[in-house]
Amino acid sequence: MKRILRTPLGLSAAVLLLAVLVLAVIAPLVWTDQANAVDTAQISRGSTAEHWMGTDNLGRDVFLRVLVATGLSVRLALLATAIGVLAGLVLGAVPVVLGRRAGRVVTAVVNIAVAFPALLLALFFAVVIGPGTTGSLLAIGFATAPGFARLVQTLVAKVAGLDYVAAARVAGAGRIRLLVRHILPNVAEPLVINATMAAGAALLAFAGLSFLGLGVQPPEYDWGRLLGEGLQGIYLRPAAAIAPGVAVVVAGLAFHLFGEALSKGFTRHTAPVKLRRTEAASAVPTDDDAVLVVEDLRVAFPGVTPVRGVSFTVGQGEAVGIVGESGSGKSLTALAVARLIEHPGQVDAQRLTFQGRDLRNGDDRVHRRLLGTSLAMVFQDPMTSLNPAMRIGRQLAEVAEQHQGASRKQAWQRAVDRLRAVRIPDPERRARQYPHEFSGGMRQRAMIGMGLMGKPALIIADEPTTALDVTVQRQVLRLLRTIRAADGAALLLISHDITVVSQVCDRVLVMYAGRVVEDLPADELHTAARHPYTRALLAAVPDMTTDRDLPLAVIPGRPVDAAQVPTGCAYAPRCPLATERCVTAHPPLETDNGRRVACWHADVPVQVGDRGE
Amino acid sequence: MTAAISRTHWDSPWLGFAVRRAGRLLVSLWVLITAAFLMIHVIPGDPVRAALGPSASVQLVEARRAALGLNDPLWLQYLNYLGDLLTLDMRSSMVSGLPVAQVIGDRLPATLELAGYAAALAFAVAIPLGAGMAVLTRGGRRRPAELGFTATSAVLAVVPEFLLAVGLIYVFGVRLAWLPVAGRDGFDSYILPVLALMIAPGAVLARIMRVEMLAVFEADHVRTARAKRLPQWLITLRHVLPNALTATVTVGGLLLGALVAGTVLVENVFAWPGLGSTIVQSILAKDYPVVQGVVLVYGLGVLLINLAVDVLLAVLDPRSTIRES
Amino acid sequence: MSLSRWVIVVSELTFEDVTVRFGTRGHATTAADGVHLTVPHGSIVGLVGESGSGKSTLARAAVGLVPVSGGRILLDGQPIDHRARRLQMVFQDPHSALDPRMTIGESIAEALPRRARDRRDRVAALLDLVGLPAECARQYPAQLSGGQRQRVGLARALAGEPDVIIADEITSALDVSIQGTVLNLVRDLQRRMRLSMLFISHNLAVVRYVSDFIAVMYHGRIVEHGPADQVLADPQDPYTRELLAAAADPAGQLDLGETSDTTPAHR
C-alpha cells in the first residue's frame, strides 16, 4: 500500500477516491434538505451568485443536488459491484470445488454470457426485473458477474496448475482447503484490482441506466438522472448537464485510476543501484587477423552493470567458448558484441572490431550489410526465436533479399538450399511450413541455416542446445562443427555447460559476475585450470566418470547479484582461498603465456568444500 | 507440443474448427432466443395489462392476450415462437400495432450505419496511433510523449459514450454551434454521434495496440530479425505488427460488441432514429414484443461479431484456435 | 533385466502395466504406455529420458495428480490410497513449488500428518535434516535461493513420513554451482533414512550419480531397466546406448549418421 501511495498516480488516485467516498457519506447528511428545497422564484435559472450551477425546473440548486447524489450513485455502484463480484466468485470458483463435469457446465454458461457486452446484459435484466433502483442494481450486478467469473476462472486455472497446489494435493489437502488456503490468496491481488475498476464501471453503467430513465426513479435522484434532466435544457442551462457529467467522470476515474495504481504497485521493482566505474582491464594481446576483438566491454542498464570490462579476441576459424552461471554476463557479452543491446542498455568498449571494422561508430548501413552477411546468430530457445506468423522459408529468404539484392524467387531458392545444408529433410516442403510445425531440433537447425544465408565469418551461439534434449543437442553441435569445417567460420559459443564448451571449443573463457576470470585452452581445462572458481565449477558438475561414493564438491553461497557486486574479487565470498586482499582489491586479469587468470591466489590447491549455502 | 503428425492433413483442422465454431454459435443463438422468449414470461405481473395500462378493459386485455397466444401452455408458445422466428414473424408492437419485423427493418439501417462508421473510424485511428506510439516510446524512449499518450488515452477510455456525447453536444452544438445535435439528416449529423461512440473504444484499442507492440518488440523472434540486420521499418512492419495485430483483434472483437451496445445510449442522446432509441422507448412503454425483437437483433449482432473475430484470428495466426483441440 | 531378479522387500512401489492417456477420442496422446517399473525398498531408482518421454506423467500418476487409464500402481502390493499420503513428491521448479503467500514453516506443517503434535518442533527438525536453519520457518519462499527452496521441497515431502519419495527433475532448474548441494542432500538422506525414491531426470550423469537402479524411458515406454552399473556398463537398448554416448560426449565426436529428428520440442 505504501508503495502505491508513493507514486504520483497512486497518490492522486487515492486522494481522489477518498474524497469521493467521504463526499458520498457526508453530502446526503448535510445538504439533503437544501438540495430538495423548492424555490418557485428561482425556476430554471442559469448560474447566479446564489446558485453557481443554476437551478432546475423546480428552482432547486443544481450544485447541491449533484453533491447529494454522490451518496446514492456511489452506494449503488458499490452494491452492484459487490453483487457482481460475489456472483462471479461463486461461478468462477465452483469448477474447482465441484470437480470436472459440473465445472464444465458452469464454464460453458459463463462463456456464452461473457460474449455479450455488459450493457446489453444490464438492459436485458433491467427489462426482466423491471426498471427502478432495485431492478437496475440487480441488473448491473448480474451483468458484471460473467466477466468477473471468467476472470476468476482464468486466474484460478492458472494458479491451480502450479506445482505448489499439486504439492498441497499430494500432501493431502482437500478441495476446500486448496481453494481457501492456496488458490484464493494467490488470486486476490488481481481480483481486488479488477473489483476496483468494476466499481468504476458500475458507477458509469448506473449513470447510463438512470440517464435512460431505466434506473433510479423520481423522487430519488442520482447523477445519471440529473444528467438526463439537464440534457433537456442544455441550450439554456448547460451547467445542469455538465455538472453531473463531470461528477460521473471524476468518480469513475477515481475508481479506475486507483485500480490501475494498485496493479502497478503490485508488480515489484528492483531498487536501482548507483553505477560504479572500475579501473580499466588489462590489455589483450591483439591480433590483426582476428575476426573479433573486444576490449574493456561494458554493458550497463539503469542501475546495474552486468558486464564490467570484458576483453577477448576470436581468431579466424577459432572456436571460443564462454561459460558461467546465470547472471555472469555471458549472454549480454554475446549480445553486445553482436550489437543487439537495445535502449536503455548502454554498450561501452575501448575497442570493438569485427573483421577489422570498428563497430562502435561508422555508417550504420555499411555495418548492417557486414553483420547481416558475415555474423550469424543462434539463440537459446528456437521456438520463440522464430517469427510464429511467418513461413520458415520466408524468414530465411529475407536475409538474401535484404543484403544480397536477391529477387524473391532467388532468395527462396537459396533458403531451400540452406535448409538442405542444415539437413532438414524435404526442404522444399518444410520451407513452406510455420515454426510450430517444426520440432525443436529442426527449428534450431533452421536458425543455423538462417545464419548461413550469407557467408558467416563468425557464428555467435547463445546456449544453442540448452532447450534441446541431449540426443538432439548432439546433432546441433555436430552441425555447427561441420559448418565450421566447411566454411572456416569462427564460433563464439555461450553455455552454462562446461562439458559442452570444453568439447566444442578451442579456447574457454570463464566469466563470473560480469568479468572474465580465466581464459585458457579447452584441452587444459581439466588439467591446468588455475582460478578456484573454474576448478570448483568443474568439480561440482557430475559427469559420467564422477566417483559415486564421494560427495560432490559444492560451491558455497549463491551467485552474485549483478546489482550488488562487492568491491574486491566478486568470487571472494564463496572462495575457500579468499583473504583480506581478495575482499578489498579486485585482482586484474593477468596474461601469462597466452593464458589469462584474475586471481590473487591462482594455483593454490583448493580444499573441496561440502554442503554450502 | 505434439508434433507435426496431425498437421500434415491440411483440411481436417479447418473442418474441425468450422464444426466446433458453428456448434458454439448455434448454442449461443439458442440461449439468446430462449432468453428473449422467456423475458416476457418472467416479468412480474401481466405484460399485456402493463402495456395497456390500468384503464384498459378486461375484455381488451383478454383479447390481446389471446392474440399474443399468452393463454397457451408455455411449451406451445415456445414452439410457436420458434416457428414464427423462422419466417421472421416477430408479432406486432402493442403500442403502434406495426409488425416488429417492420419496425426493425425501418430502424436497423440507422444503427448499422452509426456502429459501422464508428467501428471503422476507431480501428482506422487506433491501430496506427497505438503502433506509432509503440515505435516512438519503446524501451523507455520519449518519456513525456509516453506519459501524455497514456494519460490522455486512460481518461478517454474511461469516459462513457453518453457522457462524451453530452460533452460534445455542449462544445460543438451549444458553445460553438457548428454541428447539429439531434436527428439523422446529412453528413453533419453523423459527426458527433460517431465521435461519441468511437472515442472510448478507440482509446482502449490504441492502448492495447501499443502494449502488444511493445511486448512483441521484446520478443525473441524480433531479436532474431535484428540479428538479420533488417532495417527498422521492415522489422516493425513485417515481424512486429502482424504478431501484435492478432492479440489486438481479439480484444477489438470484445470492444466492437461493447460499441454495438453503446449505440443504445448514444442514439438516445442524439435522438438518432435507430434501434437503440427504439428499445428504450419500448421498455418505457412496456411494448414487450418490440423489446424482444430488438434484443434478438442486438444479441445476434454481437454473436456475428464474435464469429467474425474468430475466423479472422484463424486466418491471421497460423497457430491459433483452429489447430488446437 | 527381468523383474524377478530384483530383491523384493517391504514398502516398494510398483507400476504394473501403467498407461496414461490425455485428451479425448481423436486427439488422445499416450504419455505412458504399458509401463512396468519397481522401486524397491530403500533404494533410489533413476528414471531417465528426454522431455516428452512420459517421465513426469508417470510421477504425477503415482501420486494421484493424473488419472491412470490402464494398469495399476501398487505400494507393497496394495492399490495406493492417496489420502494416506504414503507417497510424496518434490517438484522441478523451485519458484512455483512453494506457495508464495505461506511461510516455509506453514508449507511444511501442512504436509505433517494430522495427528502430529509439537508441529513447530517437527518443522524445525525437518529443516535441520535438510541443512537449513530453524529461522527459515518464518521466512517466505521469495527470501530463499533456488537451492534452499529445493531443500524445503524435500523437507515438505519428508514431513508426510512417506514410504516413497518421487523427485521430479529437482536439480534441472538450479544453477550448476547449486545442483551439487541438492544431489549430495538426496544421497545423504537416502543413506541415513533408507528412503525409497524414484529420481527423475533428463540428465544421465545426474541420475547415474544418485541411483542404485536405472530405468530408461523413451516415447512413453520403459525401454531398459536394471542395476545402475549394469545399465551403464552394458546397455541393451539402442536408445540407451545413444543416451550414454551423448552423455559421455555431448558434442558427438563419433559420427553415428544423422538420426531422424522426431523429438518434440519443449513447448
Describe this structure in words.
The complex is a heterotrimer of chains A (613), B (325) and C (267). Chain A is an alpha/beta fold and 613 residues long. Chain A folds into 2 domains: 2-40 and 49-265, MetI-like (MetI-like fold, Orthogonal Bundle), CATH 1.10.3720.10; 287-389 and 434-528, P-loop containing nucleotide triphosphate hydrolases (Rossmann fold), CATH 3.40.50. Chain A is 52% helix and 11% strand. The two termini of chain A are 33 Å apart. In chain A, 55% of the residues are buried. Mean pLDDT of chain A is 84; it is low at 268-285 and 608-613. Chain B is mostly helical and 325 residues long. Chain B starts with 10 loop residues before the first helix and ends in a 9-residue tail after the last helix. Chain C has 267 residues and is of the alpha/beta class. Chain C is globular and about 50 Å long. The relative contact order of chain C is 0.17. Residues 1-9 and 254-267 of chain C have low confidence and may be disordered. Classes of the chains: A alpha/beta (613), B mainly alpha (325), C alpha/beta (267). Chains A and B meet through α5, α8, α10, α12 and α13 of A and α1, α6, α7, α9 and α10 of B. Chain B: It is found in: Cell membrane. Chain B: The chain crosses the membrane at residues 25-43, 114-136, 148-170, 190-208, 244-266, 295-316. Chain B: Pfam families: BPD_transp_1 (PF00528), BPD_transp_1_N (PF19300). Chain B: It is a multi-pass membrane protein.
Structure summarized in a few sentences:
By secondary structure, chain A is an alpha/beta fold.
Strand arrangement within the widest β-sheet of chain A reads 7-8-9-3-10-11-13-12
How would you classify the helix and strand content of chain A by structural class? alpha/beta
The largest sheet of chain A is:
8 strands, mixed
CATH architecture of the largest domain in chain A: Orthogonal Bundle
Q: Structural class, from secondary structure content of chain B?
A: mainly alpha
**Over all CA atoms, what is the radius of gyration of chain B?**
25 Å
Q: Per CATH, which architecture of the largest domain in chain B?
A: Orthogonal Bundle
Percentage of residues in helical conformation of chain B: over 70%
The best one-word shape of chain A is: elongated
Gap between N and C termini of chain A, in Å?
Answer: 33 Å
Q: What count of structural domains of chain B?
A: 2
Query: How many beta-strand segments of chain A?
Result: 13
Query: Which residues of chain A sit in consecutive blocks of at least 5 with pLDDT less than 50?
Result: 268-285, 608-613
CATH homology-level superfamily of the largest domain in chain A: MetI-like
Average predicted local confidence, pLDDT of chain B: 83
- The number of helical runs of chain A is 21
Number of domains of chain A: 2
Uncertain ranges of chain B: 1-11, 321-325
